[in-house]
Amino acid sequence: MATNTFHNHHYSLGLNRHHSATYDNIPPPSATTFFLKPTNTTLTSSPLSSHHHLHSLAISSTKTFSVSPTTSFSTPTTSSKFDILQQHLSAQNFREADEETRRLLIVLAGEAAQKRGYVFFSEVQFIPEADLKAIDYLWRQHSNNRFGYSVQKRIFFDKVNQDFTNFFIKVGWMKKLDTEVDQYNYRAFPNEFIWELNDDTPGGHLPLTNALRGTQLLKCVLNHPAFKNTPEEEEERLLKAAIIEGNKAAASSTGGGGLKRLIDGSKPLNKRVLKSDYSF
Fold first, then answer.
1. In the beta sheet, which residues pair with residue 176?
2. Cα–Cα dist 146/197, whole Å
3. What is the pTM of this model?
């Protein structure tokens, strides 16, 4: 059985960001920027306890980001901070755009995140709403609404009922193996991820968020006020959640089937094999 790990890209989310109060007025490009230099390290992490299937981590040969000697964490001017991201996205350079998004989030999260080189889940609250909306807007604009945090949020809350395993499968961060039972494994970063937008690319596949330190970071991003539902959207979400729960109850009493089965795949959960190590 393959044991690819979803390497920690993005996510000890390093990102810093700035933007004006509105996000549909994207300023002209600027030559000033900085990037984090990837370095290979070997980490050993004791298992984390939290979600029953999310926080058991056994990490080896992962990639972290260190700041190169020439790196500067000075904040770009407001008029140019999203230019590089816009350029990458408009050119459909999604891997570069993913890396720039990570960099922006580190910057926007504050000085501590900049010094550390990644974002703690508790720092997501410091990312300005307008800036996170701007980043999401650019991803959606240049992907025909296929990529972006708000796209991922709809999937997480409306399609998989806040189940991280099914979310990772739905957005393609895990891949189905060619086995008799439904078996999934994590994609290896970066080569196994999908950096093109085509008919087969799962919605919400990008941008990436690493769950190396657990899923709290991703959950905080998806719950950020920038993506708060309108009252009508929240009512619709609650209705869908109630329908899913009703189908789950019906499925458990009848032995399977219902909407839950349609969401999770062609086979019930007890015939699906999922690796419990979320060390990407």
1. 184
2. 8
3. 0.62
